[in-house]
């Protein structure tokens, strides 16, 4: 029954990890510094699915033989194979969505969009919707609508462009492509959706903080108020945009971070805290530890 026990232990550990996150969030996360919330949320979102995937892969590598009773091997192998295949299918579907979005974007002409402090090359989509975003994966493209160009003056357009440059700097579309796959694969785990929304918020806050080094924070907040209700044209897993149809609580937190958070004036890379990075790496290493059982299987 060893393989089934591995699956059971992984499931229990994944669920406990999510409940531990909720406890820590209420103790040290909510209302505290953004970098704490970022690392805490990212770790809680990533570690449980990684643990389940590592367990499934290790069982597949060990095969169906040697189990007792005889039905245990095929059952655990089938569950693991099904989980891995579903994951591959979900990421293939996201890859198709990304390619489809890029093909649509690339039909629009490229243009040089210049302001006094920001200069960007992007695709200008001829639609009245107020919209701007980075679309793609590793090498994303800036997409901006004629509706946005007509809606904002030069100063506020500059703030939106600076925000989108922040998304490009952190390669948010690439990382959230993979995170979006994990979200779909383990949507049944506790707090997956709330964690996803938390990461989306923190992604925007991080880009806001990066932009605040190039433009005035108040102007950026005004731009946010002006276009926050504009809907995204593509999935949030392949698109990182300045605005979206989001709860007003997310808007309030972004504005508070811009106007009242003292860390806005500090380096945006303050999101990278060495202590939290170490904790994150240790948690990920533990999540991958089932792979270490493969050489010891007989």
List keywords for this structure.
298 residues, five-stranded mixed β-sheet, alpha+beta, elongated, 10 helices
How many helices in DSSP terms?
10
> Which band does the percent of strand residues land in?
5-15%
Quick one: biggest sheet? 5 strands, mixed
- Average of per-residue pLDDT values: 82
Shape: elongated
Rg is 22 Å
Secondary-structure element series: HHHEEEEHHHHHEHH
Distance between the termini: 14 Å
Indicate how many domains the architecture comprises. Answer: 1
Helix content: 55-70%
Number of strands: 5
Widest beta sheet: strand line-up: 1-2-4-3-5
Overview of the structural elements:
There is one protein chain. The protein has helices at 2-29, 34-62, 72-105, 146-151, 154-170, 172-185, 192-211, 217-227, 248-259, 274-287; strands at residues 110-114, 119-125, 132-135, 141-145, 239-241. It is α+β, with helices and mostly antiparallel strands. It has one domain (2-296). It has a 5-stranded mixed beta sheet with strand order 1-2-4-3-5. A hairpin with a 4-residue loop joins strand 1 and strand 2 (119-125). The two termini are 14 Å apart.
